[in-house]
Amino acid sequence: MVEINRLDAFLGNPYMLNGIKIYSPTIKEVSNIGQETYYCHLVLSSFDKEKILIDLLKFDIHKYEQICNGNDYEVLTSHPGIRDYITESLSFFTKEDVKFEPATNSFQIGEMGFIDINNYVDVANVIRELNGNLSQEQNNLKPSTNKAKQMLEKMMAFSKKQESKEDYLDLKDIISILSSAPDNGITIFNVGELTIYQVYEQFERVNLKESFIRLLPVWANGHLDKDSKLPEWITKTKF
């Protein structure tokens, strides 16, 4: 599986794939198109037919069961309308005009081949990682077709429940926290220049540091449970 260069992503540099640059968008770029559109782009660029057809496009579950065993790329590129949605999403993450070439069943930028059935998973993984989604678990979940609808309903209900919680943090809350955190140079005036990857990486670091600062006095006064350890913030992040 292709993995991004963590240093390049941290510095805001694009990922190079066969001479084509794939970007983690900045907060301003996400704001310009709207968060809802941005999240749609993420789903469409995943090439996950279940997420795209059922979750996003509300495809009929019974019709989906007839094609669920097909290759994700072949199923999605067989429909011109879905291809157009995907090309728009890929154009956003490459900052180039992506086109679909029916003759080769591939996505191209100019005369350069970009995505085909052999590398679409790699491209999807790069975009996923550059946008702060490091978990493969949901992508690997393939529930049996006769339970797909029930599972989907449960997942959507759980998601809605989570988002209704008062402590749910959306993107605005995260960048607000980063802008208010001390000693990181991030302010309301420059946070829009950060990429999505940088935002999530720095948010994780702030969380680690905050946990350390809060527990340090407890540890220093000997009130920390003997089996508990003082969390270390000078450590490797997940990003």
TrEMBL record:
<protein>
    <submittedName>
        <fullName>Uncharacterized protein</fullName>
    </submittedName>
</protein>
